[in-house]
Write a structure and sequence with these properties.
With 144 residues, the protein is mainly alpha-helical. The chain has one domain. It has 5 helices and no strands. α4 packs antiparallel against α5. The two termini are 25 Å apart.
């Protein structure tokens, strides 16, 4: 499993972005996955579509939960860093290095928060496609 780092530098932001791309692979390929695994009505007897849809459902749930945890964890870590830097900045108003570091962390925090919005769009799109193809084959549990 890939574990993201939420460290200070821009390289970490690039690796975080790459990690999210890898973690979103299932969502990026959902249409292809459904087209190759869930049969059309004429081929319905040859494949167990309910089992295929159930497995895809579980994979999507796990992927979405995992990405949500990663993004929220990094937001929490970065928020703590921003808070600490703000407190230090109040004590040392003349420290330009501190100000620069604070601005960098604030920018990173805003970017990570925007990733939550991207995540919502990606998830909604995947569930829409999933439901269009799998609704007659598989009913997700009510508690989710």
């Amino acid at each position: 499993k890939l574990i993201p780092t939420c460290s200070v530098n821009m390289e970490a932001m690039k690796s975080f972005d790459e990690l999210l791309k890898v973690m979103r692979t299932i969502d990026d390929r959902i249409v292809h996955e459904l087209n190759t695994t869930v049969p059309t009505a004429s081929f319905a007897g040859k494949i167990d579509a309910s089992q295929t849809c159930k497995q895809l459902y579980e994979s999507l749930m796990a992927a979405h939960a995992s990405r949500d945890r990663v993004i929220k964890s990094c937001i929490a870590q970065t928020s703590a860093v921003v808070k600490t830097l703000r407190e230090e900045r109040e004590k040392n108003l003349d420290d330009l290095t501190l100000l620069k570091q604070l601005r960098k962390e604030q920018t990173k925090l805003k970017w990570m928060q925007s990733e939550l919005n991207v995540e919502e769009v990606v998830n909604d799109r995947s569930w829409k496609v999933f439901n269009e193809r799998c609704r007659i084959h598989f009913k997700p549990p009510k508690n989710e």
